TrEMBL record:
One of its GO terms (cellular component) is membrane. Residues 60-153 form the Rieske domain. The keyword Metal-binding applies. This is Rieske (2Fe-2S) protein.
Amino acid sequence: MDPVTRTTQPSFCPTRRAILAAVPGIAILPVAVACGTASKSDAPSGSTTNGGSGGTAGGGARIPVAQVPLGSAVVIAGAKPYVVAQPADGTFVAFDAACTHQGATVSADDGLTLECPAHGSRFNGGTGAVEKGPAKAALASVPVRRDGENLVVG
């Protein structure tokens, strides 16, 4: 008789059942994070987190004008990340920071160059246009307005 070969999963690999059991908790995580940032909306309007504060009365992100130098782009982290750039003196533009390839948040590199850390897509921070794939579509434009010494995005 041939011996029966059995394979077992190593203890560090979760079973399908364990993964499926964890999915409801994982699905709720973004809601919990969003609720957590919303509760901090009573912070002073000048306070920032990673370059901007989470919420305003209008629902947009705020960032001081001084944090967006001429010829550069800045990513505002939060429940909904944005990119804000100043391509020309006094002209501000904003985009959704989600890469149009698979949704990873782009990072602001040198000047107006934005890069996706997942697959290397590159975008122009002044226009949102794709400069290098695999992304094929430009970043989605979002409204930005100046409110005194702050920019309100979204």
